[in-house]
UniProtKB/TrEMBL annotation, chains A, B:
GO molecular function: proton channel activity
Keyword Methyltransferase recorded: no
Keywords: Cell membrane, Hydrogen ion transport, Ion channel, Ion transport, Membrane, Transmembrane, Transmembrane helix, Transport
Gene from which this protein is expressed: OTOP2
InterPro entries: Otopetrin (IPR004878)
Protein name (Swiss-Prot/TrEMBL): Otopetrin 2
Family, similarity comment: Belongs to the otopetrin family.
Record membrane topology: Multi-pass membrane protein
Length: 583, 583
């Protein structure tokens, strides 16, 4: 019987009376009762799940808090003996995780029953593709780091070289592991697997934290223009930077190069964390794989949305190139001009997006589609990740708003900055509502069958009974997922079809509008993803944030918030694509 | 039909055939199917729930992030114009929340159907009692603040006085509101109620954040002994402290007095947040109130546990008084001695607690009691709060461990500090496991019935049917909580009892041991609660933390972590009492 999270326990051993099928379907709701009935297996399973959840949570809490203490120690401490300690801690974590992942891969390939089901929603192609892309960038970063540290080997700790080597192996193993196993719903050795996955999650979060800290410190070492940053953190050489010189000439170039690759490594850790978390949630889950409609992607239905979206994308990329080129030059006068162009571009994009999202929400109010009911853990997770990731962008926007308003918001540049931030907040709220509403609707093409079936509930009921009795051999399946029987009716040819034509036309009009809006939002989100991912940092180029807050504070906010913002935009594109398909 | 979180939608309008009762019970598991069936009301409800959850989450995210930005601005900003802005923001929030709470109280007192059910697990007496106690302390603090700021009125912003006045009204209304309505499961106006409760939660978290910040800054103004703190934040007078003098003589005393009351105000906000969150989770929930066993609290069964616990408590309070008296004197030599006594006392307590917890977990492994199954939102919430609150203590411990290990851990004092921290981490992990395992077990006295009922499933089944048909009038109740029918059997006199006597004796031995352990742990947790709650701050008296991390960082860690630690100990005492009763 299915319990609250889609996990399925074995059916209770009921006597096989003629009434048994009936009772089988009924059992799902009598969870509490049936646990009294079922002698040991179900209880043992439940106990095991509770215990391993608890154990893996405790492991995560301990690893993460110890890690936070070490990171804080390495940043705020005057003696700076902790950078090495932190790296040793990370090396141990990474080696443990790599060993577990290898063990898991070998174990599941040998045991037939280890993975019975795959969750088709988990590890979608954009996530795995992004993982591979960012993984490659991270590998290049590690190679650069190794080459760089070889130059310091004569006067610096060897741990500095060991870490990137170990990390490179880890990235290779993890990318392979997640590519292959992201969809697994593990059935055997669930306690070990839960702990292993939580270890993977903790390791990735620790690597993320260490990378974010190093990135922030790196930006603090290069002082901002007003030069009021007196801190000069150096986390490379414990004995002091000046006493240790690089023995080969490529050091400066390498160092610059690998700092450009840091953001990709940060994204890699976030992606891997998200996938490990989904796998952890899926341990022990039995998925019913009946819920796949073959939804076709046809672009010819829509025209206006993609067209306007493409115009926005091209214009945005144009301004982005100008921005990058002119900011690199470092001329303050030009910098203000390109910042203004950038802000105007963003204002236009975000305004259009908000307007079209409002239109989309209005169409939702008009249309009569049913909401998808029943708990779907992957969907709840998707929604959680969407809202969670949007917090990064929210944070940057609100910090900017406070800084601009508090300093008086004088001049066009500040006014535009304020406008962009306010509009982005509104756009984020609206887009979250739109996507979540869209994900919770039944796909359109089911709608008509449903309306017609509903007119005669007796037919439905009779059919449900017939379906149950006719299902050949799949007895347990019938019991475990009661939704199946009702659901299968939607595609049953005997269901009377033929809804009146006018209604059909009205549906088509709404569907088309929703598809247009989704296509437009997708392209705009791609634009808003590309700009920060490839290096637009108006938050630092406009000095108001760094002047208002202390620079370290501002660097921390932006460096933590932006990667989440990038993740949010990618996630939005994927979710909007799903909404596009189901509309 | 009951869905995944205990929320109950109205039954679908099924045709009233002779089979209808059967279908009614069955409907719970056919949630997906029945939603296709049910025409509008169920769907509308579900849609409404999704929408209001989303809306209230978005409100919370926006209020909190804007608040964080304002707090950060007021701390890290050189110009310091934001303290007033922050207070205006808080005043607006507090007024809105107060208005909503008054509206809610009036509305629910007029409408009969607004609150149909009360969740008996929500708002337990320790939580409400703590709320009133801390509320009174917060009121006194506000009175002191008002008296103090009156002295500065001639040269400072009037907002400074408005804030404590508004806050005092808010505390009065909120304490009344939570005392009366903490158990409510609201049925009418659920959208407004969800948003209102989330607003209450946000307001309390914002007040908590502002209080923690002010407390940290206050400690930063008084420089630590080594005198290396160059920052001197002043958030009282925007125009500079020195230019504004108090016009009456009581200012210095008042100021000192209300800073002693800050920790109580911080706890108050935490308590109110927890209760608002529980109420938010309970909106729209229909609770089946059959699950109340009259468990008696009898102390005469246990002896060793309470005795040893009392000895520990008395000894601990003795050392605590010595500690407080000697630390107040400020003599560095004496300070080390009392710190050592304090650490030794803590080491002994934590070690004994760990050992007895291990023994308790071993007994759990031996005993065969069933696990409580079925989702209980209040219990999951309890577990979540327990683990969440323990993170505060974990953080302080790990930060201490890193600081002591990194500086070499020389001397008895550092070794003891390290030992206490390590043992506390172990104790927290063990205690969490013990409490959560205990909360998930069925009460002992049910065990025997269950075992006997299980031997004959046919009896159970027949009886279940009989029970359903016999229930007089409460048709919907039967449908809505299918567990009821099976559960009622446990107390049905017809169930054959009489488990063999030897087993009964073995149970009694285990029960007694568990009760002893719970009683001992309760008293020790009370000790570990009293010491920090009444002002023991070894984290600041031992300067290693403040020296290793920068002082602001260390103050932030301790000031955020300790209130959670205090909350954790109180929560543990309450949970252990529950485990004591069910054992």
């Amino acid at each position: 019987m299915a319990d609250e999270e889609g996990y399925i326990s074995p059916p209770p051993t009921l006597p096989s009376t003629p009434c048994s099928i009936h009772l089988g379907v009924q059992a799902g709701s009598m969870r509490r009762g049936s646990d009294v009935l079922s002698t040991s297996r179900g209880t043992v399973r439940e106990r095991g799940r509770n215990r391993s959840w608890l154990l893996s949570s405790i492991i995560t809490v301990n690893v993460l808090i110890l890690g936070i203490a070490l990171v804080s120690g390495s940043v705020f401490n005057n003696v700076k003996i902790n950078a090495i300690n932190l790296q040793i801690f990370l090396i141990v974590l990474v080696i443990l995780t790599t060993a577990w992942m290898l063990y898991y891969t070998i174990y599941t390939s040998r045991e037939d029953h280890a993975v019975l089901y795959k969750d088709s929603h988990a590890g979608p192609v954009w996530l795995r593709g992004g993982l591979v892309l960012f993984g490659i960038c991270s590998l290049i970063m590690d190679v650069f780091k190794i080459a760089n540290y070889i130059g310091y080997l004569h006067c610096d700790s060897a741990v500095k070289i060991v870490f990137p080597v170990v990390q490179a192996v880890f990235i290779l193993v993890q990318t392979y592991f997640l590519w292959l196993h992201a969809k697994d719903c593990v059935q055997l050795q669930r306690n070990i697997t839960r702990c292993g996955l939580m270890l993977t999650l903790s390791t990735n979060l620790m690597l993320w934290m260490a990378a974010v800290t190093e990135e922030s410190l790196h930006q603090t070492v290069v002082p901002p223009e007003d030069g009021n940053s007196t801190h000069s953190y150096d986390i490379r050489a414990p004995g002091g930077y000046s006493s240790c010189n690089c023995s080969h000439s490529a050091c400066a170039v390498l160092e610059k190069a690998y700092y450009y690759l840091y953001p990709f490594n940060i994204e890699y850790s976030l992606f891997a964390s998200a996938m490990a978390y989904v796998m952890w949630k899926n341990v022990g889950r039995l998925v019913d794989e009946h819920n796949h409609h073959s939804l076709h992607f046809r672009l010819k239905d829509v025209l206006v949305g993609p067209a306007v979206g493409l115009v926005m994308l091209v214009a945005g990329l144009g301004t982005f190139v100008i921005y990058k080129v002119d900011v690199e030059k470092g001329d303050p006068g030009k910098r203000d001009t390109v910042l203004m162009i950038h802000y105007v571009m963003n204002t236009v994009a975000v305004t259009l997006m908000s307007v079209s999202t409002v239109a989309g929400c209005a169409i939702y109010r008009l249309d009569q589609r049913d909401h998808v009911s029943g708990k779907n853990p992957t969907r709840s997770l998707d929604v959680g990740l969407l809202i969670g990731a949007s917090i990064g962008q929210f944070t940057i926007c609100y910090f900017t708003i406070v800084a601009v308003v508090a300093t008086g918001a004088e001049g066009h540049l500040n006014a535009l900055n304020l406008a962009v931030s306010l509009l982005t907040v509104i756009q984020l709220c609206l887009q979250n509502i739109f996507i979540i509403e869209g994900l919770h609707r039944e796909p359109f093409h089911e709608d008509m069958h449903q309306a017609s079936v509903f007119t005669n509930p007796y037919v439905l009921q009779a059919q449900a009974h017939r379906d149950i009795h006719n299902l050949p051999g799949t007895f347990m399946e019938t019991k475990s997922s009661p939704a199946l029987t009702v659901h299968s009716m939607h595609v049953a040819p005997s269901a009377p079809s033929g809804s009146p034509l006018p209604q059909r036309h009205r549906l088509t009009w709404k569907r088309r509008a929703l598809k247009e809006i989704c296509a437009f939002l997708m392209l705009c989100n791609i634009l808003l993803w590309i700009m920060p991912a490839f290096g637009a940092r108006p938050q630092f180029d406009n000095t108001i944030g760094a002047e208002f807050y202390e620079f370290t504070m501002w660097a921390a906010v932006v460096n933590i918030g932006l990667p989440f913002g990038i993740f949010y935009r990618m996630h939005s594109v994927a979710s909007l694509f799903e909404v596009f398909l189901t509309s």
